[in-house]
Specification:
It is a single chain. This protein is mainly beta. The protein contains 1 helix and 16 strands. It has one domain. The strands form 3 sheets. Strands 4, 5, 6, 7, 8, 9, 11, 12, 14 and 15 form a 10-stranded antiparallel beta sheet that branches. Strands 3-16-10-13 form a 4-stranded antiparallel beta sheet, with no helix packed on it. The N terminus is likely disordered.
């Protein structure tokens, strides 16, 4: 018997088969490539991007969104009142809806697989956030210190255990590096779809 590695698009769509190893269930799923499932697999669904909410800045600084979740700022960055997305999925990009568009949130995913199975989540150390609203600002900013955590670990570890129904939840946090003054618009919004990989542990 073989164990297949699978990759999955975070937007939720089609899966593709990849590779074979030792006996057991397919071992991993990632948000980085299209795939087609062969046999039982981990299934990953993206609910929200990592969204930093409304910000401005009078000097360079950072916006930190944690898996807790919490949002804080350093340096000259000012957090403009915007609500946390507490019941995903939330619309973080629809600029016609000011309240909805201003949500901040760690990236959130659901994972499904073998009931009670342990799994591990990994993510790159850095990613690139895209400007969603605001003028005279960089189109992209770097996100550093990316961290991942699972609900079964009470958001303290990148290792989790699927529940009796084979379900789990994952959050991804990070630090937006604001490298310039952002004060030409009333506020600015940046978010990023962080690619993650989930595998049976």
């Amino acid at each position: 018997m073989s164990c297949r590695q699978v990759l999955l698009v975070a937007a939720g769509a089609a899966l593709t088969a990849a590779g074979a190893r030792a006996a057991g269930p397919p071992s991993s799923v990632s948000t980085s490539a299209d795939a087609q499932v062969v046999g039982t697999a981990l299934n990953l669904t993206a609910l929200n991007p990592l969204a930093f909410g409304r910000i401005k800045s009078t000097a360079p600084g950072t916006v930190i969104v944690t898996v807790a979740p919490q949002r804080t700022a350093t340096g000259g960055v000012v957090l403009i009142g915007s609500g946390q997305c507490s019941s995903p999925p939330c619309d973080t990009t629809n600029q016609s809806n000011d309240n909805s568009a201003s949500f901040w949130s760690p990236a959130q995913f659901t994972v499904a697989g073998t009931p009670a199975a342990a799994y591990r989540v990994t993510a790159p150390a850095t990613a690139t956030a895209t400007l969603k609203s605001g003028s005279s600002a960089p189109a992209m900013l770097q996100v550093t210190d990316i961290a991942v955590a699972t609900n079964s670990s009470n958001w303290t570890s990148n290792i989790g255990t699927l529940d009796a129904a084979g379900q789990g939840t994952i959050r991804v946090g990070g630090t937006l590096q604001v490298t310039t003054i952002l004060n030409a618009s009333s506020y600015y919004l940046y978010d990023v779809n962080v690619p993650i990989t989930v595998q049976y542990n």
